[in-house]
Design goal:
82 residues, mainly alpha, two-stranded antiparallel sheet, 3 helices, 52% helix, 11% strand, elongated
């Protein structure tokens, strides 16, 4: 894990105007062969999966914040024009 934390590029760079995370993967700067030879593939997959889960949780939290503002019951919904 130490090798991956040090040498893997990318991650959450910032947040957009709505507060959603912006994820960047800088594959051009990645030393693929060095990482593959320095760690097991299972560890690499686990690391990337953990990063994706973190990003997913952050997006889900933001989605809940936004949907709480827009949530209404069917009775409150405007009538549909026929």
């Amino acid at each position: 894990m130490q090798v991956m934390n040090k040498y893997l590029t990318g991650g959450i760079a910032c947040f957009d105007k709505e507060g959603s995370p912006v994820r960047v993967e800088r594959f051009g700067l990645l030393d693929t062969k060095g990482i593959v030879y320095s760690c097991r593939m299972a560890d690499l997959q686990k690391f990337k999966l953990q990063e994706q889960e973190l990003c997913y949780r952050m997006m889900k939290q933001q989605s809940q914040k936004v949907s709480d503002l827009d949530t209404f019951t069917p009775e409150q919904a405007p009538p549909l024009d026929s």
